[in-house]
């Protein structure tokens, strides 16, 4: 087929990642030809703003504002979908595959929300679907889980998979800054999604977790079944108190399997300050896994950004191009057939047992601690330590912070609701789960 004259690429989306792809294709041109045995040729690019925004030089490339022109271009062998979002990305990807084209995408939302259609369509049409760039940018976590860890049985996975949240929490910790201005900086740095609620409310991390779960545990979890809590409720004082207790706060995507039941959750988590994940700073990502045979393993690197994500996109392109030039049949995108992935039994959050950090804003009066600890005691929650700092003048509140021994989430939530009804407590109290197993 096209081996002598090259493998033809059609690119949809010329934003941060698309521009990085163009740059790397040029920079690595000879290496790609050597590694594939045929050159990679970008033949068609579509971008909504190609007419108005400056873009990298694209000599000899057909340019369009219409993404369908790329998908329908008979010359294109591999479509790179880099526009993000679910619509029209879903229709474009399905159409490209129906036309027998391989697809490479960085689109975690598409795969998390429409994976049933998209993965099944790749198998049905016998085409390759690469999605290495959809989780943790430049870290080859998809291949690592699908190929590197294929012989093992994963027991647990803890991921820092949202660079924006990690940047915000790390900067709040290092600079003593508050949430809002640091989010603004993350947006300026181009880390955040177009709608930053996807980042700070944990949705982006939950979408990525569903993909990691399929590869790591061989089961399916709809994104709605992932308990998802973001980082907005955290104040600088929580970061400071966490440090006093010996912890860092990270937004973790967590999956654990025990006796055939899976925990799948995304939430801020206090982890020991000397743990490997606590050292993951800035916008970096990391995925820590615990396997039966391999034991602990950590994958670390840049989870976002133009060139790191473009490198992941092009790793899929090279894999696809190599297979095309050798006329190899594609393997299923998830390593096994979509139909082999059974729906997971997901543990209810109420059944979770763990230790907690609690923060109440309470009026500084005698008897306050007794009232709060009484409610916690009634719910079988035992307090491991308490910190109260500063004295207020008059009726102002002061932070009252506690660390609990192991308790059930059901009891904890009940207690927090009751405490928040006390007249001596103001605002909504904060609780953060503690994960000691990473220490
Ligand atoms: N907004 C995402 C993040 C980009 O901050 O991680 C990479 O998926």
Summarize the structure.
With 439 residues, the protein is an alpha/beta fold. The protein has 14 helices and 20 strands.
The total count of helices amounts to 14
Let me know the largest β-sheet.
12 strands, mixed
Tell me the strand percentage band. 25-35%
Distance between the termini: 54 Å
> What is the CATH level 1 assignment of the largest domain?
Alpha Beta
Helix percentage range? 25-40%
Radius of gyration: 24 Å
Bound molecule kinds, no repeats = L-homoserine
Kindly state the number of beta strands.
20
Shape, per Cα inertia axes:
elongated
Any low-confidence stretches, pLDDT <50, length ≥5?
none
Mean pLDDT across every amino acid position:
94
Overview of this protein structure:
This protein is α/β, with parallel strands linked by helices and 439 residues long. The chain has 3 domains: 3-137 and 306-339, Rossmann fold, CATH 3.40.50; 141-301, Dihydrodipicolinate Reductase, domain 2 (2-Layer Sandwich), CATH 3.30.360; 351-434, Alpha-Beta Plaits (2-Layer Sandwich). 35% of the residues lie in helices and 26% in strands. It contains 14 helices and 20 strands. Helix 7 (163-175) crosses helix 8 and helix 13 (368-378) packs antiparallel against helix 14 (409-420). The protein is elongated. The model has no long low-confidence stretch (mean pLDDT 94). L-homoserine is lined by residues 137, 162-164, 191-193, 199, 204, 303-304. L-homoserine binds at residues 137, 162-164, 191-193, 199, 204, 303-304.
